Amino acid sequence: MASEQPTIERRSHKRYLVRDGTYAFLRPPANKIGQIIDISLSGLAFCYFSTNGASRDANGLDLLADDGICLEDVPYTTINDFILPTEQPFSQITMRRRCIKFGPLTENHVEYLQKIINKYGQAEETGKRM
Fold first, then answer.
1. Which of 6, 16, 24, 42 has the lowest CB atom count within 10 Å?
2. CATH number assigned to the domain covering 16-121
């Protein structure tokens, strides 16, 4: 019988679930856009459609919101990129989830990230992970 080990939180900032209306855009050569799932001051996760596997890293990341908040050229590193389960296993189009860690941020980046979190974020339930 396996014993349950407590999960150790490695994130340095609180993660917020994000309501509809916020998007991450990977600049060329990736050219992918997707809905942001959750965000913090240190990173985010978003979903995107793919027809040819994981998208390459881009030359930058832009964050867009319906109300016109736009944060351009955010430095980042991809931490994970994986296929989300689907009910159509033989489809040519897959839904993927990319988890990223922000690189060194300017004061302007931090200010706009905080605006996005304040306007669109809602705290995750304790113990629940996406």
1. 6
2. 2.40.10.220
